[in-house]
Predict the 3D structure of the following.
Amino acid sequence: MGKYQSGKNTHGEILGFKTIIKPSSESVRRHYQKISETAKRLNAAPQHVLISKLNSIIRGWCNYFKTVCSKEIFSKLEYLTYKRIRRWADRRHPKKSKTWVTNKYWKTVKTDNSVFKSTGKYEVALHKHVKTTIARHTKIKGDASPFDGNTLYWGKRMSNHPEMKKSVANLLKEQNGKCNWCGLPFQEGDKLENDHIKPVKAGGSNKLENRQLLHKHCHHIKTKSDLKVIKRHKAEKEWNKTLKQFNLRDWIWVNDIPTLV
Ligand SMILES: [Zn+2]
C-alpha cells in the first residue's frame, strides 16, 4: 500500500488517507458474502454455471473498484474466494482425495497452475481478483502531498472515489477542491460537510445549487452565523403574517397609527 496509506505530514503524523483511498471494509465484506452465497446456492450446479455466475460478480466488483483498490485487498479476496470454492468442490466428493478434487476442478493455464476452470463443452475459467489491472484515473505522483497546494489534483482524486456520493463529487469539482468558507484546499482525511448555503430554516432549498462543501470546523462557524439569518427570516415571516392579518380587516389611519375598525 506504501504511499497510498502512509502519507505523513510535516510532524510525521499519519494522515487519514485510508478511508478515501480504499473501498470500505463493508463493501469488501458484502462482496465476499455474495460470492459465498452464490457458491452455497449452486452447490449442486455444474462447475461452469458456478464460474459464470461468480465471474459476473467478481468482474463487476473489480471493475468498479480498480481505481481505488489496493493489491492487498484483491489478494485477500482471492484467498477467501479460493477457500470458498475449495469447500464447494470438496463437499461434492467427500470420498475422493484432495488431490483428486484439485485435479478435477483446477487446471493449468499458461504459467498459472491453479485456475478454477471447467472443461469440455462449457469451458470457462474463474476470473481472479488479483488479475485485475489496477487503474488510477489520476495517478498518484510520487511526490504529491496535500500540502503542496495542488488543490485540483487532490480534489479530482477524491472525487474519483467510486464510493463518494455523486453530489459531493460534483461540488468538490465545482469548488476546485477548496472550502467555500475559508478558501483553503481540502486535504485527504479532512471531514467534509455538505452545507445549505441558505439555511433550510431560512427558506433555503435542498437542491444542489444551494449546497456547498465546507470543512467540518468551518461548517461549525458558518452555522453560528446562519442563526442570525434564520432569526431575520423568522422575524420577516412573523411581520408578513401580521401584515396579512391586518390587511384582512378594515382599518384606517388615526393620528398616523393604523387602527382597526
Ligand atoms: Zn474551511
About this structure: The radius of gyration is 29 Å. The first helix runs from residue 18 to 21. Residues 179, 181-182, 184, 214-215, 218 surround zinc ion (CB under 6 Å). The chain has two domains: 25-131, 151-239.
